[in-house]
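A reminder before we start the practical. When you read a complex entry, don't treat the lines as separate problems. The point of joint prediction is that each chain is placed relative to the others, so the output describes one connected object in space. Small molecules and nucleic acid strands, if listed, are placed in the same frame. In the example below there are four entries. Take a minute to note the order of the lines before looking further.
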Amino acid sequence: MIEAWPTADDPFGHPREACGVVGIAALAGRRVDAARAAFFALYALQHRGQESAGIATQVGDRVHIHRGMGLVAQVFTEDSLAPLQGPVALGHTRYSTTGSSVLANAQPYLIETLHGPLALAHNGNVTNARALRRALLARGVGLVSTSDSEVLTLMLAEPAEGEDGVPDWPARLDRIMTRVQGAFSLVVLAGGALYALRDPLGLRPLCLGELIGGQGEVVGHIVASESAAFGTVGARFVREVAPGEILRLDADGVARLRAPEEARRPALCVFEYVYFARPDSQLEGRDVYMARMALGRELAAEHPADADLVIGVPDSATPAAMGYAAAVGLPYGEGLMKNRYIGRTFIQPGEALRRSSVRLKYNPIRENLAGRRVVLVDDSIVRGNTMGPLVRLLRQAGATAVHVRISSPPVRHPCFMGIDLASHAELVADRLSVDEVCAHIGADSLGYLSVEGMGRAVGTGPRRGHCAACFTGDYPVNVDEHRGERG
Amino acid sequence: MIEAWPTADDPFGHPREACGVVGIAALAGRRVDAARAAFFALYALQHRGQESAGIATQVGDRVHIHRGMGLVAQVFTEDSLAPLQGPVALGHTRYSTTGSSVLANAQPYLIETLHGPLALAHNGNVTNARALRRALLARGVGLVSTSDSEVLTLMLAEPAEGEDGVPDWPARLDRIMTRVQGAFSLVVLAGGALYALRDPLGLRPLCLGELIGGQGEVVGHIVASESAAFGTVGARFVREVAPGEILRLDADGVARLRAPEEARRPALCVFEYVYFARPDSQLEGRDVYMARMALGRELAAEHPADADLVIGVPDSATPAAMGYAAAVGLPYGEGLMKNRYIGRTFIQPGEALRRSSVRLKYNPIRENLAGRRVVLVDDSIVRGNTMGPLVRLLRQAGATAVHVRISSPPVRHPCFMGIDLASHAELVADRLSVDEVCAHIGADSLGYLSVEGMGRAVGTGPRRGHCAACFTGDYPVNVDEHRGERG
Amino acid sequence: MIEAWPTADDPFGHPREACGVVGIAALAGRRVDAARAAFFALYALQHRGQESAGIATQVGDRVHIHRGMGLVAQVFTEDSLAPLQGPVALGHTRYSTTGSSVLANAQPYLIETLHGPLALAHNGNVTNARALRRALLARGVGLVSTSDSEVLTLMLAEPAEGEDGVPDWPARLDRIMTRVQGAFSLVVLAGGALYALRDPLGLRPLCLGELIGGQGEVVGHIVASESAAFGTVGARFVREVAPGEILRLDADGVARLRAPEEARRPALCVFEYVYFARPDSQLEGRDVYMARMALGRELAAEHPADADLVIGVPDSATPAAMGYAAAVGLPYGEGLMKNRYIGRTFIQPGEALRRSSVRLKYNPIRENLAGRRVVLVDDSIVRGNTMGPLVRLLRQAGATAVHVRISSPPVRHPCFMGIDLASHAELVADRLSVDEVCAHIGADSLGYLSVEGMGRAVGTGPRRGHCAACFTGDYPVNVDEHRGERG
Amino acid sequence: MIEAWPTADDPFGHPREACGVVGIAALAGRRVDAARAAFFALYALQHRGQESAGIATQVGDRVHIHRGMGLVAQVFTEDSLAPLQGPVALGHTRYSTTGSSVLANAQPYLIETLHGPLALAHNGNVTNARALRRALLARGVGLVSTSDSEVLTLMLAEPAEGEDGVPDWPARLDRIMTRVQGAFSLVVLAGGALYALRDPLGLRPLCLGELIGGQGEVVGHIVASESAAFGTVGARFVREVAPGEILRLDADGVARLRAPEEARRPALCVFEYVYFARPDSQLEGRDVYMARMALGRELAAEHPADADLVIGVPDSATPAAMGYAAAVGLPYGEGLMKNRYIGRTFIQPGEALRRSSVRLKYNPIRENLAGRRVVLVDDSIVRGNTMGPLVRLLRQAGATAVHVRISSPPVRHPCFMGIDLASHAELVADRLSVDEVCAHIGADSLGYLSVEGMGRAVGTGPRRGHCAACFTGDYPVNVDEHRGERG
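Here is the predicted structure of the whole assembly.
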């Protein structure tokens, strides 16, 4: 384990955290294997982070924890799961965008406090982390990592005002809600209960479900980043945790400790709709799959094309491509196959094989493409490195025209709330106009969905605001700490 | 490494070999990184075997080899690739159906002979292995493994009749062609040249391509199990290696050492069309993807259904489902999402989570299914464990009817030519009638494609015979050694 | 990594720390590869701890650290050493007596503070750890481990009284000296300088040396647990760090920040002389080897024997045996060979081999023993499991009498200052009289060195007190926190 | 696993094999955990090879085997031992002097033959391996490794003359005895019985023992490279296997299949006495320890010294030093301490630490050396790299004179029978005269034991010849294949 330690003035090497969290709590008298349920839920949230995984449970005064590097299925064996006894569990799967991929950053984060162990799992990115860190350090606290999660955990270790030897967890959590800026969907294990929090803007998703027993009865509760995790553990979707809400899950059920922030317009990350969430998850009351089809339909309305066939870049753009095809009345088909075993390889293509980088991942279906004018739908263009080779690939396979359609607007601004996009300089749409991008990728035509079209597809309104800062630059939180950092 | 050694009388613990092979040979004066090309070709053949991978190259009198357990991308690093210099390379990726997953069985297989090193990569299964082994042992040869490949290699080490101190590789390879029964697509590295062989029935695929250089010129040749490997290395498909043919690939190009067996009707495994090959590979002159769509169309003709939506079990049944939908004039849609990160987990669901096994892998798209009568297309039913839970899953998601359609006939017989299906006792269609299977899986109706319909879809004729023994029990080779073994 | 988290009320699962520490600081303008020197010094201190090892260096504002489980030579490679640049280094090798052998406990311990990174390596055991932990937790600090070292590090993170935004490291270290009870030889890296501390009783050793360059010039300084580490790095012994002293080592040389505690009688652990330290180290001005010979001579004076040959239990008792032999005028010889490759094995001897446990480690030299009356010298008897089988082994090899002589008094009390001995119940001398022990081990006679004789051998006087609490029960520090714990 | 394959004309990259072998056979009706006993015996033979270890057992027709890289205690766990059931076991621990340290070379070597599995463990080096390999290859056999052991195994797979479908193992083993030249102590598992062979010259040791049960009864037999292995498994030494002898060990006891070669003068490697064997082993009827003391006494007679103290280079030279001291009437003492944890490190000392290489391993006991004239005894000088720094180390510690005495003659010739010494060019005594070596190492005087003195110490006579070719160049076998190879 080689670590380079950043100092207090340079704390921003820390990874963007676009992770998956889960919490499980059994009802009194019900047998729930909480750790096992957490395992399967994390397994379903694997797409949100492949770097490390961990689960913590509590029995009496002791917290049991297992964390490791790699995929959920690699980190956990029956042997490592066995000691994780107890009726409550919290789990985390981590995504890292930096090189500091070390076990020390694996979550859940766990500390001992005056009132026993405290564990925390975090999805999101704190935008005032620098200020919060300095506040902690000024208290004479030492920090062992660069992660936001340690900051949040140590903030929770500090007594709330008016505490008299008995920890007031709701007050401590409330302090998180008021002092911390940015994105945070948190699950906390403290004093034997589980707490679930979602930041006042609801930037990252978090939802609540009921665990169902053998006779259809409710045996416990679950919170998870996405509802797609519920199916694997036999849970029933109840509702989303609301922005600004704090819930307690324990043997007695679910209690609301803090009501949602009604006054504020929520700002769920719209990229969850565009790309990040599983298509079989629900967000704000609808299947993500259907929202993606709607994005395709809006795209068709804005940018129709005179063509013979509509195909999507597999797998993420398939629903948008099907929506597009249905809306313009063209046949939908598959024109690109994706190598399903695409484990990461670090082998370089080498000189002789220089042209093959995209070919590692995609192969054309020639008989489907030959002699046809093709609409190629993708969900987004970030750096713009892949689309050009794909267009060439289709032409080599016989496509007579390639019209590229993107089911989201041009990405022009970095994200500071937990999604790793890229810096300004790397964003192709920040450097080039749409026509220039079209020429750059060699397409016959290029159309992006408008911000308005995207809004129509995902739905907006008094209770359904979204953060679209990566498209608009209109950040819902103060990002002064980050100005100049990635620009 | 724990190994239990089977004795001469019990040699059939050996794994069925449904693997991927590749061979690369540079033309004289052309710079080709043969090992790197072999790596990327194996990477594209990963679906044919995930147990182990290996590459061997030859420089002068020395063969360099690297083999390891796991996926191609795990086995090879730049460090392990670096020593693999030389203008010819052969590679192998291995599939194992038994527990004896050990490095000693990883291929290529390599021995020293009187005339220098000899390496071999094998896809297929030898049906008279027992007799061939005994013949070798009777010669006083010792065998270090239970694999067919060692048998083939040691047969090649034996001088051909009439040899006079100079090895007659063509004659030795010819001996393989006449004495060995069953399936074998072989790539052999001997005396600095590469040889490619395909068994007289052409049971397993093997195809030939040209490596293209920076100016579009031919710089070498490639043989690979499937043409989908060609795209990743910038190669151009030339033709299939014909059943019974022997080719030599070296610095001078490609030479035919043995003509195809014209008299015999070929018998390419039809399951390559149904399921095994990549959809973006070509077999017998057409894209596998299109053949699968054709299977769906034939299925529609034989078993139409009164429904609202056609969906496929992802990913393998998607083209058949699209073909079915187009033929019956119903909309095609996606109703099931597959967890893309489905690494194998050995964690048991546990009591409380008993119902969730299929849910680990699939989630329904509720809004697409609710209130609809659904046709669910799959490519095959082997053991019949998965289809029932899938049908229930669709009903729970709101489907009002589920009609199951299978784009191949009932699987009633085991395979002895290299595809791991199951024993007689495990094959659900061998125990139950179609109606009983329908009841077993809880579908509203069930229709299998007929053998004749399958023949129409994949094409038959004087030069296009197929082995369909798993459906018909009509084996193209003598399988007496195996009678009773899996029945 | 499975961890069971002890709560605040049960913090004493933590391992006794009998470890090795080292610090290296280059003089200004001198090229010293500080990390490499630390590596070789740790290598020489390997006997003080085999569980984990680590080295930290500082370059500008950044600390680089590498820690790992296992032997020093296993933890470090040229690759892991390469990033550890900079003119100061501190290292640690850890001994653990409990099962919680996890990377998270590996040292050096490293945190970020308001004033940059702070690293610490600790040899010893804090006897008021419980109180210190509670004080920290009450400040709202969270603790991530159960080790004393985290407590010490976080105490150093707290501003000293009167600090005004600039850290007063001497004052903070002074606070350690006054508030922490028990054994601590510390090396601390803070603000770019190295600090060395030894507790007021000097319970654990720590010594200072000069690093010598190619022309014999002084190029830097070193502190290490034992002087035996100096030879491997070409360093010259200067003196011991005095009890209660604080030194700063940096580019300017060595500065004394706090004078030794003159008033107090020191209490170096006498077991360092008896067994723990390397025989080629110096303690209090003399070679440990010579002290061990002196222990043997005193033992001879107190317990002579009528015998033909004196042998020692290899390797630790060899000098005592030679001293004994010389004093009584008997020939010294080798009667037992020790298996040099005694890596730990967890294979159980099994039923049939039940008698062989001591035989794994020792073999007799029959021709040296046959027909002789033997004196067998050992350094100590703790649990008493080994001596009986050794006596039997000598008899089987032909010894006609076996007189056991122990070069230290009976061990009757547990150690709370960092040496893992055993609990009261396990100490054979606490349960049995000397005669009973003699019968238990089957010796012809048994003699222990007296406390007074031990004192004569290791030297006592106004400035040379020793802790002999494990023999006398007279603890030099308050051990109330531990009462009942191991008794 | 990277392997570079040597061709038939360059087969001599193979490692010299100076290994340890063991075989265990239970008597009928006696419960012996043969694999466990083999494990502990290998553990005691660890000094003969640290590269890899393996054990094979037979139950009915199946051989179970486990092999791995590393120390015996690392290779075997209770889990890996558990499947190794059965009443006979053979084991091997391997020493390698070349870089090709790969699992494929780990022994026992195992093949399937016409008559079932055959396993073999080999200590020694075959001097006509090249000719034997070519004979095998000419039979059309392929070889998968470069080890002598594969050659021996495949020779055993070949039917003996006159066999009629039933294997005549004694005849096959006899063929080994007559055709194979060089050093071989073999243990073979074939047809359910264990065979032990020692080459006609008895170059490598091999001895026979009885396994003793709980009531002192004989429960089985053991053969092992050295008798030091017997103690760890509760076995009783019976005798050495004689040169040219073949034994069968099975449920019926021990049968002699071939009598020793009476006519030939034996040639046990004298280096086993000098350095290689454990001091607690017996060779030719005496403890190796006592032979080493005798070497020291002879050395004293030939090269006395005017000095104050005799010390040895630990650990191997200790008995010779004690013998020397007793003979010249000087006190024996310890002047050098060896770092007991001397695991191999690949960290280079670096520029600043250039002088410290010997200091890693040895530290002086200053108080023992200061002001004294010292005799430093070592067992041999091979390359001569270590002795010079040791002499300097003693002088730095205060020795006023250093007289070096070597308890064997100058090593002037390479070994081709299994001991890795060095090539001619590397042997310091082949390049320099004794006076030049003395100057080279900086000693006050240097004395080697003469060949005659060595003969007196280890004993010679009609039945006690020794191979001393490394000292005399008089090889007992034809080494033409190797001429020029290392010279």
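Discuss with your neighbour: Residues 1-17, 97-101 of chain A have pLDDT under 50 and may be disordered. What might explain this?
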